[in-house]
Known about the structure:
alpha+beta
Amino acid sequence: MQVHLVVVKPFAALTRGDIVTDPDRIAEILKGQHASMVVRVAAPANKGV
């Protein structure tokens, strides 16, 4: 499973409901001052068909 972030309070250019999937951006957000403005969600790995 992969971890994505869902924005619950707007910040920077992100609005409520936006989903962050980039691992580098996720790490940056979680280490910064906006960590309380997102929630982590588990997403199944995209295996393709």
